Structure formats: C-alpha cells, structure tokens
Amino acid sequence: MYIWFTVLAGLAILSFSFLKTLFPYFDADCAYILRSLKLGARLVKYKKNKPFYSILDCFLDAARRHPTKTFVHFEGREVSYGEVDKQSSKVARALQAAVQLKEGDTVAMFLPNEPSFIWTWLGLAKLGCVAALLNFNIRSKSLLHCFSCCGAKVIISSAELLDAVEEVLPTLRERGIRVYLLSESCGIQGIDSLSDQIAQASDQPLSPDLRANVNIRSTALYIYTSGTTGLPKAAVVSHERVWAASFIQAACGITAEDIFYINLPLYHSAGFLIGMAGAIERGMTIILRRKFSASQFWDDCRKYNVTVMQYIGETMRYLCNTPKKDNDKSHKVKIAIGNGVRTDIWTEFLNRFGDIQVRELYAATEGNIGFINYTSKIGAVGRVNFIQRFFFPHALIKFDIEKEEPIRNSEGLCITAATGETGLLVGKITQRSPFIGYAGNQQQTEKKRLRNVFKKGDLYFNTGDLLLFDHENFVYFQDRVGDTFRWKGENVATSEVADILTMAQCISEANVYGVKVEGHEGRIGMAAVTLQDGEEFDCSDVYKQVVNYLPAYARPRFIRIQACLELTGTFKMKKVKLVEEGFDPAHIEDRLYFLDAEDKTYVPLTEDIYAAIASRQIKL
Q: AMP-binding enzyme C-terminal domain: which residues (predicted)?
C-alpha cells in the first residue's frame, strides 16, 4: 500500500510538473478563474436579493461589524467606519431638510479628494439619490455642460472650488439650480453653506424605505468620460457596474487586512470604483491623498504600512524619476493595480522598488468588456480565458486606421483579426454585458454601438481601442482610435480643445491631435491651425484662451501654423500624417510654437527647445 501511495504521489508530482511546463500560467489561470466564478455567483445572488443589496448596504454591514476600524486616513486624521456612517447620515438628513431630496434625484458632486467626498456620496446613497461625479479641474463651458447633461438640480462643492462655482453661478441661478458649499458660512447670494446644517443634523440611521425602489439596474452614478468626440459625456454607471468594478480588488487576491493607497481622483472610475468601492467591498482601510506626490509616495507607504497601491502609467514614471534612495525597497507594498504603464517603466519600477505584483487592467467606464493581467507578465494589459469569453463575448476585428472604420467583407460583416494582429476590440451587448450609454446624449450612445458585426442584426460595443491577442492569450494595448488621446492619465477630447482654440481672434480653424514624446506615457496635445485673413499668430491671446478654459492636461503644448488643413473625402480633418510628423522643427517647414508655462505664453519652437524637451531638461 505504501509503495502504491508513493508511486501515485510521484506520478501526481510529475503530471503537475508536466502541466507547468506546457502551461506556465496554469496556477494563475486556475486561481483567477476560481475567484471570478465565486464573485460572479455573489453578483447573481445580489441581483436576486429582495430588497436589493447595494455597496451601501455592504458599507453599513462593515460599520456594524467593526465600527472602530479605520476606514480612511487623511492628512494625519483617522476616521472609522462608524464615524463615516454617522457623518453620512448627518449629510443625508441635512440635505433632506434643505432640499427635500428624494429617491431617484440626481446631485452633482464638485468636490476634491477629501473624506467629505466619501460621506457626502454615502449620504446621497442613503436617500436613494444618484451622484454625478464632476471633475474638479473643469471650468466654465465644460463645467456647465457636465452639470447639465446629468439632469441634476443640486450641486455640492467645497470652499476651495468656490471661484469655479462663482464663475458659472449666474447660469445656475437662471436654471433654478440649488448650490451648496461644504462650509460654515458663505456670503455669496445664491450659494448656501451646508456644513453648519450638517453639524446640527441627527446622526441616527435612515430608513431603508427611502431607497426601497433602488435595484441592480438602477443608476448609481454618472462618471464623466471624454469618449471619442466632443465635450465630456456622463457615462451611466448602474449598481451592477459598481459591484462588478468593486470586485477587481477581490479578483486580485486583496483581503480585508490589506491597506489601500488612493492618490487618484475620486471622480474617476479608478479612484472611486476600484479604489474606494473596492475597499468597502473588502472592508479594508484606505489612505487618501488630495493628489499624487512622487516625493511623498513611499514615505506615506512606509508610514501607513500600505500593501496595495493604485497607479496610472505616469505614476510609475514619476516614481522612477525621483532621486534613488537606499530604502527604495523598504516598504510593504505587494500589489499595484492600474493601467497605462509602459513596458520599460514597468521593468524599471520592479528593478528599483522590488517584487511588486503589477495588476495591469484594461477597461472603460462605460464599456462592457475588460481584462486583468493577473500573471504580472510585463507589457500585457490582460489575459483571455474561456470563462470570460463565455460570459462576456468579445472579439478583435480588422480596422482601417485611415478611414477610421471596421473593415467589412463582401457580405458587409466584420472580419476577425488573426492572433498576433492588431484589431479593434468590440464587446457583444447582452443582458449580462450591457452598454447603457451616456446620460442626455443619445447620439454619442448610438455612435458606440456597432451593428451587423458577425451576423445581421447583432450588436456590439465599440471600445474605440486597438488591441492585440498573442499566441499565449495575453492582451496588449496598441492605440486609441478616433478623436481622443490620453495624457497625464486623462482623456482629452480633440473637438473640445479645437473649440477653445478657435475662440482666439487670430485662429480660423484648428485640428487637434496627440503626439508621442520620447520617455512619456500617452500623447501630448498638439494643434495644426490656420489663421484668419490678415492676422498673425497672437501668442499671448491663444495662451490666455487655453489656460482660462482648459485643464492643464488638455492644453495643446505645440501649435503648428498651416496655410490650410487637409481634409478627407468626407470632410474630416486628417490627423494620421500630422501625428507621424510630430513636432521636430528640423523636419517641419511650418512655423511651430511651444507653450512655455514659465513665460506664460506661446514661443517659437526652436531646435534648442526641442532638444531640451528630448533630454527632459524641459518638463512637460
């Protein structure tokens, strides 16, 4: 018997070794698939629960289980689950009394990264309200647009953003919008202070009956995305999507004992859904910062015993650019979750800061398909497996970059890209993987729907992204198509930038696009412009327009003056050749200008400036 047991054990070991040789990612695949199935089963359970069990209910359960556990560390202050629960109840009651908010109402949150963001959102959720998360960098026209398309009748902001609110206040008042400031007092007519009312409100629990009609398909949030064209669009985020995104931490093996570091903005899906909602789902502690600081990042991680960090591609590059220290590997960070890191930066980051499991993601706020690189294979944004293909059907299809449209066969159907070939990612729209679209923008919603893909009448979500699947089933991001580029971790809509540029008196037309800069992630803004008859390029006026109306990441750093803009046969501005030519003055005959942040104007782009940018003497 002992001999047979030994033989069987030996065969098992040999079989496992053989499997590992043939399938090197077998362990990781099994672990990830098992976690995914468990999480999928939980989501199905939540869908069937009556009453519906939301992420808010998950938070309330956590507050009951461990009320004294720290939920958020912020600037030296600790706030427990119980304290956040009570504070959110006070917010809910103050708003209930002041505005008579009811289930289904939408409230715009124009707030920076701070604990009040968290309990304001929780307070709104307790009332069954929908929160529209406004980017606190936007101003003027963009701010009004974002506010309008979500249908909100109330906006809540903070004292540090008062100037931005005051700028659009006349329009808000015309529309009968109630404006509240998280401040003890406010002397501006049309803006009411809210902090004093919150302080006086009761912190007793609110009745679940206030949100009795909220279900898995109800809208939970509006998160803004630049998409492919135009001003930011309000992506509709259902409670089902909140749950699915919050599961990403669990899918990466993160537990309640981990400590999560959030320095990305909470108005983004990464900071809010993966970071904060994911922390609630796990019942863990988060370290919240107002904004990312490369110089303080690792000190924070050491101080608070951080085990999980979030990143965008630029985050890791900034960290790698800091002066090297002897204690670079002295920390407890074991997992990094994010997207957009270049292969060279990824390698440099690991070599310098230690064996951290990088969980690179691919996803879109409004999309119905996403990937996680759960193996830490450098360069990949995910991995395809049969479970995902079954539950969330998707494909890569051949795409004509010049025409910016899928290539179709003689029957008018799309053609699947071969393994190892770049193609446009599309996700089949089903009840299990829906595409809800954008609030108040049916036209842009329809643009993201792709019909007659593999058979007549089928319907897919067009991600607008070019990806590649290799022979090992790894997924690689290649490029973004359409009229959007990504810089500093933000999507920039080219038509919005063009609209601002043409407000300058000297500019007639503008063709905005993103160009690559050596050593930087994403593409930086550049514009080819034509001038009004008889006008010269007015450096200071153009600078004033872009600074007044665009956030820093969207401002075109390079301007190219052309006699005319080249158009396609359908009168679309051609960008491909301009993107390829870049901004090297040695190879471009047109006049070029550079946005000089120090001199606060545009200056002629010389070869010396170009060389300084290439050598990183000039920071972009």
A: 496-572
